[in-house]
Design goal:
single chain, alpha+beta, 2 domains, 7 helices
């Protein structure tokens, strides 16, 4: 029997899938692959090719040729980045159950990253104008994750701590709310790993992520 979509194997008895989705291509390209920076780089290279030819007193044909090759090379690089972003968006599946988060990624070799709720110290939400956004997960300090193996579903947090990220999620606020509601009973049942709480946690999340779901902090204070 084949494994369910986005999961390494069938869910154990008693575990329930709450949500599953994939990154939005545009949000992933802008947020993780920085296509705007690449586009600006192409524009600069184009301008530099033309201006340098003019300054060197070359003919108009030479300036046009310099601009053409600069544009061609720049667009080729930009096209590769966009193709990689599209492939990543198509092959990535995020899954939230009532016990863990699973990131399924990789086009040639499929990999599955499992993050149990008990290993999550904090979560933050960063949204865009269109409602898409990233959910940043701060793992417990004893968790050692690989930045290279998880990229682009990761970012470098404070003190070099690697933080998994669910990137480019459509309707990110709704998914974040679902995650918070799922995290809360797991925290209440665990006396070993409590939620990061208090004003210090709120300041950390605001500084690192930009937007925090206030319910997460308030529930952490109660835990």
């Amino acid at each position: 029997m084949s494994a369910p979509r986005g999961l390494p194997h069938a869910l154990p008895a008693g575990e329930t899938q709450l949500w599953q989705g994939s990154p939005n291509f545009r949000a992933l390209a802008v947020g993780a692959f920085h296509v705007r920076v690449w586009a600006a780089y192409v524009a600069v290279m184009l301008a530099w090719g033309v201006i340098s030819a003019v300054i060197s007193h070359h003919s108009l044909r030479v300036a046009e040729a310099a601009g053409f090759w600069s544009l061609l090379l720049g667009l080729t690089a930009l096209g590769i980045v966009l193709a990689f972003a599209y492939l990543t968006a198509r092959t990535t599946i995020y899954t939230i159950t009532d016990r863990r988060i699973v990131i399924c990624y990789g086009a040639a070799i499929r990999k599955h990253f499992n993050l149990p709720f008990t290993a999550i110290q904090a979560a933050g939400l960063r949204t865009a104008a269109d409602g898409s956004g990233d959910i940043v997960l701060t793992p417990q300090t004893d968790r050692r994750l690989s930045y290279l193996l998880l990229w682009p579903h990761v970012r470098a947090g404070k003190r070099g701590r690697v933080e998994p990220v669910l990137r480019g999620i459509p309707d990110a606020a709704r998914v974040a709310r679902l995650l918070i509601d799922a995290l809360d009973p797991a925290r209440q049942a665990s006396s070993i790993i409590p939620i990061t709480s208090g004003e210090a946690a709120r300041a950390d999340i605001r500084q690192d992520v930009g937007v925090m779901d206030t319910d997460l902090a308030s529930r952490g204070r109660a835990a």
